[in-house]
Amino acid sequence: MTYLMTHFLELARKRYSCRKYDTRPVEGEKLELILEAGRIAPSAVNFQPWHFYLFTAKDALDRLYGTYHREWFRTAPSVIVICGDHKESWKRRDGKDHCDIDVGITADHMTLQATALGLATCWICNFDPDKTRELLNLPEHLEPVVMLPVGYPLDEVDPDRHDSKRKPLTEIVTRLTS
Ligand SMILES: Cc1cc2nc3c(=O)[nH]c(=O)nc-3n(C[C@H](O)[C@H](O)[C@H](O)COP(=O)(O)O)c2cc1C
After folding, report:
1. Which CATH code of 1.10.12.10, 2.70.20.10, 3.40.109.10, 3.40.47.10 fits the domain covering 16-155?
2. pTM tops 0.90, yes or no
3. CA 123 / ligand 1 centre spacing (Å)
4. What is the per-residue pLDDT across 128-138, written as a single tens digit (0 to 9) for each?
């Protein structure tokens, strides 16, 4: 049974939402690996409807912090803003736009790569979209969807969180046996 405990599950369990970062900068090579993990993510029809904005410069970060008013956000030494491109995303026959799904996958690739590098991240969607659009001077078809602060963590993680804060499989799986 132990062979089933893959490295992936260990990595996925290690990832958590970090809300306190060490202000020391993240090495450029590590940020490049995170962007690369995002680049190779799968997407509907391989359309790759995304664009990544990397913030590491103090001035630019200061402006970005104004789009999400949490003190802890200001501790992040780097932030990746992931935008979805609605002009490029796949739309199904019934019109369903798969942009958010694709952006979600690339974002999760990045969070897991960051975790594998000993870094921490946090999904942020509750930012001010209008302010962010203005800051990045985004055209209509590019939508800011997720912000990922990236840095070395300074907070404590609840080791039981996957037992205490996740629904059990019995609640979320229907097993069709015939
Ligand atoms: C789509 C999405 C949006 C989120 N937006 C925010 C956010 O705006 N601010 C925040 O502090 N956390 C945000 N989170 C983090 C969740 O609160 C967190 O993932 C969840 O509570 C589970 O905790 P964990 O990531 O530590 O496992 C978001 C997560 C997801 C997946």
Report:
1. 3.40.109.10
2. yes
3. 5
4. 999 999 999 99
